[in-house]
Amino acid sequence: MTNPLLARDGLPDFASIRAEHVEPAVTTIVARHRDTLAALTAQPEPTFVSLIEPFEDANHALTRVWNSVQHLNAVLDEERFREAYNKCRVALADYHAEVGQNQALHDACAQIREKESATLDGTQLKLLDDLLRDFRLAGVALPTERKQRFRELMQQLAKAQSKFEENVLDATQDWTLEIRDEDELAGMPAGAVARAAAAAGSRGLDGWLLTLDEPNYFAVLSHAENTSLRQRFYEAWTTRASDRGPSAGRFDNSALMQEILELRHETAELLGFSSYAELSLATKMAADPSEVLGFLRDLAARYRPAAGREFEELQRFSGRSLDAWDVSFYAERLRRERHSVSEEALRPYFPLPRVVEGMFAVASRLYGLSFQAREGVSTWHPEVRYYAITDKSGREIAGFYLDPCAREGKRGGAWMHDCISRKGFGGTRVIPVAQLVCNFTPPVGDAPPLLTHNNVVTLFHEFGHGLHFMLTQVDYPSLAGIAGVPWDAVELPSQFMEQYAWQPEVLPLISAHVDTGAPLPTDMLEKLLASRVFHAGLHAVRQLEFALFDFRLHTEYRPGRGARVYDILEEVRREVAVIRFPESNRFAHAFMHIFSGGYAAGYYSYKWAEVLAADAFSAFEDTGVFDAAVALRFLDSILSRGGSRDVMEAFVEFRGRKPEVTPLLRKDGIAA
Ligand SMILES: [Zn+2]
What SS3 class is residue 85? Predict the structure, then answer.
């Protein structure tokens, strides 16, 4: 029996891949990788061509298998697949840790870097420098007993972080609210009420049961007219996994937060950094902690006056002094009154096929690309489409799958995932293939899916990631597309592309009434465009509060003094926030992005990339959003270069100067 996961070329045969293929494929490919690595590092005189290129090849083969497994795990609803995935995920993480500490490989890389520095090109040198940096960050250069301590720290951290996350999930699931009287749900969207009725029914209860998940939390806080319902939800949500609120002390993350910060600090010191923030920046675009802090404080100072005005206006509108649990509710009312354009009313104007066709037209005008839907490609679901991309000369340069709608068992959210990376050395050429996955509302009957404008922006965002991945000209997979791009710059192409979904020149291309084909009426268009900057100040100061809190926490930690989590949060709030929070608010106890996710000392990346994207887009402002010459410069300097060059250098080459914040402030209606 051949294992479809182990096919070496062409597109993966997704329709044939089963749960029982996962473990044998991963075991085989890891064994092959290990053998290759042993043979490569046994060479007496390794060179870039004899060691690095075959190493890239072996990584490409391993990644090809694992990418498909990861992808199917996210889009299929199959218990057996999930089990196989989880088992292999642990094994693979161990193997990566082993490679990260491979002394022979490290020494060979260092030797090649020294011997061939005069003959290798910039991309090859960057590849070696990144490898050596990652070895250093994996503790390879440490003396033996410290290496041992480093491994212990990694294990303890992994354990503490997953316990943190578990506590948040358990606390979230632990709390529910039973409602007997439908009047208490006044104002709530019909969908949320129906979900609550179904939740009650499935537990044999009468009435409605509100669980504490994110959609319910936002539905209650934005729409429920009942103030005490909002307050109870707010308290339950903002005290999760803490020493306060309805489940006080039962899933308390207090000690874990201290432990995580302590372990991170020790790891950083072991590797020669003075703080975890410095360690985090070793792989990012921002140069040092003071640059990040300066960046965040500067933005906070610029947004705060606008946020203050927005909040005052909201209090006037509501006719009362607002508590934290009132803000979203009155904001929603004000938004509706002022912009009177509902997402639901826009849906018939954004049928998916029209949006996709218009989105392709935009990419075609910018980069001279053509898109062809291809029939007969093996996929994981009948709704999935495959598109081939050709360049001006008609050469096929990339492809992607589009899986647009929500399904039972499919993971929520939207993402771009790399299926096959570009590779082009040693006589072989592999074109990049991506997956664009969204969770739009499925259509009824034969009608096409109808998108909200918010959905349209999401699709453009993921398409932006996709173009970054697919238009790369870099031949080494570890630097091609998104690989090797610093975390704080990776959202540049996606947020750049989002801007197109808001342009008056683009909206007619992506909209047409599903039944009549009529264009989006001018008044709706104008209201939609005006609604873009609604409460931009309040949103920005909230994000800046999170970012400053995260960054200061990881900069200021000192052993013996403790983490000062809520002291720092209080200081940041005094500096940045305009809405007062109740003393019981324990939001940090459930801040998974920084305590258990990948954003530790990195939450600032959201704003950082937003500045880059808005500034890059503003290059088009003088000559028009479709200016092909500017687009070509963007493609050549940034989009096609992946991780092969320093991002700041690339940005300066494109823009003629360093990034500025004014274009973002203008986009948000904060600056003229
Ligand atoms: Zn993104």
Answer: helix
Query: Residue 390 phi/psi, 5° resolution?
Result: -120, 150
Is 462 among the residues known to form the active site?
yes
At residue 408, the pLDDT reads 83
| CA dist., res. 353 & res. 451, Å (int) | 10
| Cβ proximity of 424 and 460 under 8 Å | no
- Say what the pTM is: 0.93
Q: Which of 53, 259, 278, 462 is catalytic?
A: 462
Q: What is the pLDDT of residue 466?
A: 98
Cα gap 276→647, rounded to integer Å:
22
3-state secondary structure of 177: strand
Q: Which pLDDT belongs to residue 1?
A: 65
Sorted by sequence, the CB contacts under 8 Å of residue 642 that are 6+ apart come out as: 468, 472, 474, 479, 480, 481, 482, 483, 484, 485
Give phi and psi for 550, each to the nearest 5.
-55, -45
> From the centroid of its chain, how far is CA 265?
25
CA 502 to chain centre: 21
CA of 493 from ligand 1 middle (Å) equals 9
Q: 84 Cβ partners below 8 Å, 6+ apart? A: 19, 20, 22, 23, 69
Element (H, E) at 139: none
Q: For residue 458, how far is its CA from the centre of ligand 1 (angstroms)?
A: 9
Q: How far is CA 134 from CA 109, 225, 516, in A?
A: 12, 53, 56
φ/ψ of 176, rounded to 5, equals -140, 165
| 465 Cα: distance to centroid of ligand 1 (angstroms) | 7
CA of 606 from ligand 1 middle (Å) equals 9
CA distance 26 to 70: 12
pLDDT at 239: 97
* 415-420 and 396-405 strand pairing: unpaired
CA of 162 to the centre of ligand 1 (A): 24
Give every residue of the chain whose pLDDT is below 50, as ranges. Answer: none
